[in-house]
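Researcher: Here's the sequence for the chain we discussed earlier.
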Amino acid sequence: MAVNKAEAAKKTRALVSIVNKALKADVLTVASDPRLVVRYLRTGVVPFDQLLGGGLPYGRFVEVFGDYSTLKSYVGLSAIANCQAEGGMAAIIDTERAFDPLWAESVGVDLDSLILWPPKEYTGPVNGEAAIDAAEALIRGRVDLIVFDSVAAALPRAEEETQLSGDKNIQPARLAQLMSTACRKLTTANQTTAVLWINQTRTNVGVMFGSNESVPGGKALGFYSSMRVAMRKSGKETQEVEVFKVENGKIVKSKVKQTIGTRIRMTLEKSKLNTPHRDEYFIFDHREGKVDTWWYLATKALELGVIFQGNGWWWKSQRGNPTKMRLSDFRGAVDEEELLSLMAARTQTPLVSPGKSLPAVSKAASPSAKSSSAGARKSTRTRAQAGSKTTVRIRKTSTK
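Model: Thanks. This is the structure I predict for it:
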């Protein structure tokens, strides 16, 4: 017997209407509700947005973890800058007390529009429970983005109230218990806020087989996060420079290698929204203080056969025949938007624009405000994430 989908949908909506009317509240909805479509906030770090398939999802958790100097906080600041550029509100929970306004401003953050916890002269509790309470209040106030930096630095109240030199022993896994409770509370409260959790890594001593890497805070955050991204250093970009040094009482000239960039490998360890276990590689240029987006796009385009490298560089544009030129001329001639368009035609993995971000979900904080995404805007992503395939790996290309 053939199933009449239209009739089944009609019966489903009728039942939902009856239940909502009986309970005097909209407690049920159908899965085709346009408000359920996942929307994304682009961070401005193109490789990161590409790996996640669009950026940070609104109403979801994303955990970023890694060693020091792997650009975790940089991604958070860049996301804040993009959120503010679209008229959204952003906040940072600075449990590490490491926020630098000058560095944030250089990334593009509007300091006057950024909500910061805790204040400099704050005399109240600064433990992990207070940080989670602040995050919950911001979520209920419909802030668009929260960057929690970091989970590892969140101090449980049980540890705060105990002296390390005292006789009282602190029970283990206090931070894990805190994060387990925090994830339940914040998930229940969250509807439209993108939450970026920044975490560190630890080494498990004595592990002989498998990975000896772990993250503080237990496993709860990993389960509650829609995406988990591991960021690791994969090498350096260097160039020879001349320096002067003293040898045997004389000043002599010598050549040394100077680090001008850091290669980063990002791995999507978990994803509920697209294909996990994918890698992206990029270079952070120390001279410019930002990600070298052009090299990332160039290496991706080389892999996909959109541009070619031989005796010179070849650019296959949509408007004309291939043209051959030197690298210096080629870099200035390539249009990034057109390049992304050609690359998207050759892969089913969503390719995002380096210069555009989705509008913020809300424009004003109000605990009773409804999400402005309720059918007002359609998702800009046309491909189903479940159908995306693994991206190609990027060659480690030198910036020389």
